[in-house]
Design a protein that fits this description.
Length: 449
């Protein structure tokens, strides 16, 4: 069977371009989306697709063991296997957060740990697709000199990692002083050309759009919908991990809003192919300091206006002018979705509470958790509902956020769950005093279970 996909203009389905063409906008200036030949995909029954995907899941049969390329037909059928640049992304753990769920008052509470991935965030899912297409273009003789992106940290890490794996030069534009040390050092280590600009993410985005007007510098931001194709596997994986059923709620942190759009796109594609028979409700969680979508939601999506985002510990979503806002609004309307916001205090406390139950959450996951707490306390999410939180990055990338929380120095936050180290002399007496004071007795421990 020949599967096919192409770029299509949102406002004019007849306007199509091959995925290996260097193009990001339609003739009317709108974004392009990837469309698939659904007639060809429907030739396989829903059960046949499920069996195929289950057979490939987490095996070493290259490249199909990758969570993304195991669904190649639904993601990017036009790339030749020999051009695929994969580091076995996807297939991340869907974790039953039993103690955290109990703490929050819901029984069926799950975390999709997308940060347990090659470069430590979900951005790998999209980048493997984009870099594979670039490798195909280069193999076809396209004169590409480098791939470039503006980033709040994780996109640049993924771009640099996948570029390095493919031997393709990369350039990243970062807002100076606004990304974590771990995020900054990843592209440096991978040999990317790192440009730190005195501006915010939105300012970097404006510059990179100008730089990539030159066709030899390819644009890797998520306005390039190849990224969305890879990222949409997150929803497909969640269904697969629940034996091809969907939860009641999926809560996802949103900044540039490509991932919200991608989550919806993957689920809708499965729905259209008959692989699932209902849709979950999607909640987009924003930081209060960067909440243009939340403000629009409060008007019933009648009005939308970009804002200037203020600093937030959830630095990867400190975005005031999200590129995929209209894609995300379409998804939220289709999924009977909600948008909620979280303050710095709420996101930091939610992350700390989760860490106390054995998770190790990044601040963006903290935003999603804080929003879950609000919706549970309001009764919008019910006790018996199945809830999945999309955890977008590994907590280890955000050491400073954790350190400052436990030191009590995090901006605009009073650290209710701080657990600073106890500094004492190196004597048994001093240790015994702390033991008596801080370590519970056996009977008390049994009560904690
Ligand atoms: C990129 C990113 C987000 C936001 O995703 P968008 O597609 O920009 O909405 C959230 N969390 C982390 C850790 C990210 O890297």
């Amino acid at each position: 069977m020949n599967y096919n996909a192409w770029f299509a203009a949102h406002d004019n389905p007849d306007e199509r371009y091959p995925l290996t063409e260097v193009i990001y906008y339609s003739s009317s200036g709108g974004l392009l989306d990837v469309e698939h030949d659904m007639t060809a995909l429907r030739q396989r029954s829903p059960d046949e697709w499920k069996q195929l995907f289950d057979r490939r899941w987490m095996r070493t049969d290259w490249p199909y063991g990758s969570g993304v390329w195991g669904k190649k037909e639904l993601v990017c059928p036009v790339v030749d296997d020999e051009n695929i640049v994969s580091m076995f992304e996807g297939g991340t753990n869907l974790f039953w957060a039993e103690r955290l769920g109990q703490d929050l008052g819901v029984e069926d509470f799950w975390i999709k740990l997308c940060g347990n991935s090659h470069t430590g965030s979900f951005k790998d899912l999209g980048m493997t697709v984009l870099i594979s297409i670039v490798r195909q273009m280069i193999a076809n003789g396209k004169p590409i000199r480098a791939v470039a992106c503006a980033s709040t940290g994780d996109t640049s890490a993924a771009l640099a990692g996948y570029g390095a794996a493919a031997g393709i030069p990369t350039m990243v534009f970062l807002p100076r002083g606004k990304v974590s040390t771990a995020q900054l050092v990843q592209p440096i280590a991978h040999g990317a050309l790192v440009l730190a600009l005195d501006t915010d993410f939105d300012g970097c985005m404006r510059i990179v759009r100008e730089v990539t007007a030159d066709e030899t510098i390819y644009l890797a931001n998520s306005l390039n919908s190849l990224r969305i194709e890879g990222q949409k596997t997150v929803g497909i994986e969640i269904a697969q991990q629940f034996d091809w059923t969907v939860p009641d709620w999926i809560i996802i942190p949103g900044g540039n809003l490509g991932n919200t759009a991608a989550l919806g796109k993957g689920l809708l594609m499965m729905y259209e192919l008959g692989m699932i028979t209902r849709l979950p409700r999607i909640v987009c969680a924003q930081a209060r300091n960067a909440n243009p979508l939340y403000r629009s939601f409060c008007t019933g999506f009648k009005h939308y206006e970009p804002i200037v985002a203020r600093p937030t510990a959830a630095s990867a979503i400190q975005i005031g002018d999200p590129v995929s806002v209209h894609r995300a609004i379409r998804v939220l309307k289709r999924f009977n979705g909600l948008v909620e916001e979280a303050s710095e205090q709420e996101l930091a406390d939610a992350a700390a509470r989760a860490d106390r139950t054995g998770l190790y959450t990044c601040p963006h996951t903290g935003v999603a958790l804080a929003v879950a707490i609000k919706l549970i306390n309001q009764g919008t999410i019910q006790k018996s509902d199945r809830v999945v939180i999309i955890s977008t990055a590994h907590g280890l990338k955000f050491t400073r956020f954790k350190v400052e929380y436990h030191e009590g120095t995090l901006r605009d936050v009073i650290s209710a769950h701080a657990n600073p180290p106890v500094e004492i002399p190196a004597t048994m007496d001093a240790v015994r005093r702390v033991l008596d004071e801080r370590v519970p007795h056996g009977a008390e421990v049994r009560k904690l279970q």
